[in-house]
Amino acid sequence: MDSGFNLAKNNPKKSANFLSKLFFVWLIKLFRRGVKNGISVQDLYLPMASDNSKTLGNKLERYWIMELEEAQKKERKPSLLRALTKTFIGTYLLHGFFMFLHLGLLRSFQPVVLSFFVQMFAEEESSNEHKKTYQYLYGGGLLLLTCIVVFLYHHSTLELSRAGMKARIACSSLLYRKALRLSRKSCGTDTSGQLVNLMSNDFLRFDLVAPMLHTFWIIPIQILLITYFIWEEVGVSSLAGVGAMCILTIPVQGVMGKLSTILRHKVADRTDYRVRLMSELINGIQVIKMYVWEKPFEKIVQTARKREIKMIWYTSHLKGLYNSFSVFTERVTLYFVVICYYLLGNRITASKVFSMAQFFNILQLSMAIYFPLAVQLGAEALVAVKRAEEILMLEERQNIVKRTEDNKGISIERVQASWTSEQHTLKNLNISIPTGMLCAIVGPVGSGKSSILQLILGELNYDKGTVSVNGEIAYASQEPWLFVSSVRQNIIYIENYNKKRYANIVDVCALKKDFQLFPNGDKTLVGERGVSLSGGQRARINLARAIYKEADIYLLDDPLSAVDTHVANHLFDECIAGYLRGKTRILVTHQLQFLKKVDHIIVLNGGIIEGQGTFTELMNSNSPYLQFLAKKEEEMEL
Ligand SMILES: Nc1ncnc2c1ncn2[C@@H]1O[C@H](COP(=O)(O)OP(=O)(O)OP(=O)(O)O)[C@@H](O)[C@H]1O
């Protein structure tokens, strides 16, 4: 549960002065360390306050909630893209303007100054009296222009990438928060694979796409400006070059953009499937090894990976094909212009060819590299946003916990709830459990016992009736859940360690003897998902974690079935009926001997309450399920 370290070094950018920021001097220490020893996670600085995941997550969440409300009012689909735009538009536009300055304006002027500079060395200019002064002037201008372009380029690209990084972090934070609120019903779908893939893969596109997005409006302006400059240099011949450049790039880009969206969707789906498959395999690795199913499962994974790689192969080839276009576009266009200019009877000079080579180099960079890259990354980022939207729209847990002063621990009235749209799992449920009562839920397999606990936890949403729960809830699941850490950490979980309480709980959960058997007592490490423990030990540690939490209501899903009768009696008498006395408790169980000791029993069958009351009341009313349990017990005793 603990990542093991915290970043401790303050970010030097915070205290850096203007010059240090301008030349990135604040980073030199880190680079030096990197050159000497390589950089490890411990060397990294604390993020700036404005890059903090909590701050960014809060900001985006605010706009996302506003977007949800607006979409509901206007009866349209909510858009994460709109929320993202509202969150980051300020800084993004400012640095977009700086990008326009260097990419759109200053870069386009560079070849013009270069042309003047080259002209100063041409023979016919030798008569010019101020030739030297102009040479210095244009040379200095060129140098100054290059310096400004370099500074603007680095700082605006860095800040725009930072905006992309912020969008990635904010989206990851928003999805993480959503994942914690998802109902069990939503978790049952393909969600976990999708979440992992989105956070580790899809959202990375934001960092890359952020500096590129401005090219959508800057490049058309740049093209107009450069076309004008080329026109000034070579007149009508410029159209041949710009036309050739447009033909070689725009249609290809359109096709590329469409194809890359389709392929990205396919790759993402196949990666989701593989990640889900792998996580299921790892979860069930014990069973797979036990039945020696390694080879067939290896084949399944290989097939999934092959299908994924096939799509990645197509994407890479498409990228390769397009990159090969960019290599000859610049030369071909320059060739067209020069030939056209010559055929129209003009004389070609060095200043014209040099400046035009530069103009076409810029055009080629923008039209054949930046623009298509922006189209491709934009399409991929859009797919990521759409996929994130799907998760953000999934059903959430209902928060039904109330704190009222009345004596009602749990009250469920006329509730109808279902996991799927086809069938109702719980029907017309009426339960009232006063504070401090010990209530047992019994019923055949699949009758809905665990579903009632999920309903109380707010994990199963209901479409009719009311559920009110008065107080804090602790829950012990039917399937024990353990994480990789010490046994003690598995029990205290996220609560504070209280020696006395902990010792009591170890005692009532019959764990003392087990701790003596462990090599390091309760400090023994639990292996991945508790593989080094027996089923009974896992169930008791899982129960102990729920009991350790100071709560008003304890929901215990069949904790006694994984242990022998002797231990089950100890758990019931010492823990459930003893230590937790005075708390509201719901115990799911199949064991008749405990039903005699509880205050209230609910008999469930097919999602309907077949009967409820004390043990004697139910036996007197000939409850079929209790009769069945009693008969079974008699048979066992014989
Ligand atoms: N997370 C879930 N998603 C979809 N359906 C579910 C989910 N959990 C339970 N169900 C369905 O709800 C019905 C009731 O299941 P539930 O687990 O509540 O029964 P149960 O009485 O606790 O059974 P058992 O004694 O085996 O634990 C079953 O048909 C089951 O398939």
Automatic annotation (TrEMBL):
Cross-referenced InterPro entries: AAA+_ATPase, ABC1_TM_dom, ABC1_TM_sf, ABC_transporter-like_ATP-bd, ABC_transporter-like_CS, ABC_transporter_C-like, P-loop_NTPase
Bilayer-spanning residue ranges: 83-105, 136-153, 208-231, 237-256, 320-344, 364-385
Originating species: Popillia japonica
Gene3D superfamilies in the record: ABC transporter type 1, transmembrane domain, P-loop containing nucleotide triphosphate hydrolases
Keywords, ordered alphabetically: ATP-binding, Membrane, Nucleotide-binding, Transmembrane, Transmembrane helix, Transport
Subcellular location field: Membrane
Residues of the ABC transmembrane type-1 domain: 96-379
Main location: membrane
SMART domains (alphabetical): AAA (SM00382)
Sequence ranges assigned to domain ABC transporter in this UniProt record: 410-631
CDD domains linked: ABCC_MRP_domain1
PROSITE patterns attached to this UniProt entry: ABC_TM1F, ABC_TRANSPORTER_1, ABC_TRANSPORTER_2
Organism superkingdom: Eukaryota
One matching Pfam family: ABC_tran
One CC-aspect GO term: membrane
PANTHER family: ATP-BINDING CASSETTE SUB-FAMILY C, FI20190P1
Gene Ontology molecular function, alphabetical: ABC-type transporter activity; ATP binding; ATP hydrolysis activity
Protein name, per record: ABC transporter transmembrane region
